[in-house]
Amino acid sequence: MTTSELDRRVGSRVRQALAARAISQAVLGASLHRSQGWISRRLRGDPGFTLAELSSIAMVLDVELDFFTGRLADVSVNVGEEAS
């Protein structure tokens, strides 16, 4: 799995949390003092969220950071390596 694939997977999990709470990207952006465009780009993985940004989002959405990053650490070990 590439870094960009990981970024998109994290973005998908953030979208899931937003949908579950009926919170728009604009509202999340306002809570983080960022624009909706900034949120949208990050959700697409262009560039991906930093851990600090994900931590802030987790606080706003009242979820554990692991909701976004769970098991990704195990997968990221193999980034750049060919599957055997």
Contiguous uncertain segments of 5+ residues: 76-84
Structural classification: mainly alpha
Termini separation: 13 Å
The shape, in one word, is globular
Q: What's the assembly state of these chains?
A: single chain
Radius of gyration: 13 Å
CATH level-3 fold name:
434 Repressor (Amino-terminal Domain)
Estimate what percentage of residues fall within beta strands.
under 5%
Largest beta sheet, briefly? none
**Count of DSSP H/I helices:** 6
By CATH, the superfamily comes out as lambda repressor-like DNA-binding domains
Overall mean pLDDT? 85
The CATH architecture classification is Orthogonal Bundle
Number of strands: 0
Helix coverage percent of residues?
55-70%
CATH class: Mainly Alpha
* Helix-strand sequence: HHHHHH
Total of domains: 1
Give a description of the structure.
With 84 residues, this protein is mainly α. It has a single domain (3-73), classed as 434 Repressor (Amino-terminal Domain) (Orthogonal Bundle). 64% of the residues lie in helices and 0% in strands. It is built from 6 helices and no strands. The protein has helices at 3-20, 25-31, 36-43, 51-61, 65-69, 72-76. Helix 2 (25-31) crosses helix 3. The longest helix is centred in the N-terminal third of the chain and has 18 residues, at 3-20. The radius of gyration is 13 Å and the shape is globular. The model is unreliable at 76-84 (pLDDT under 50).
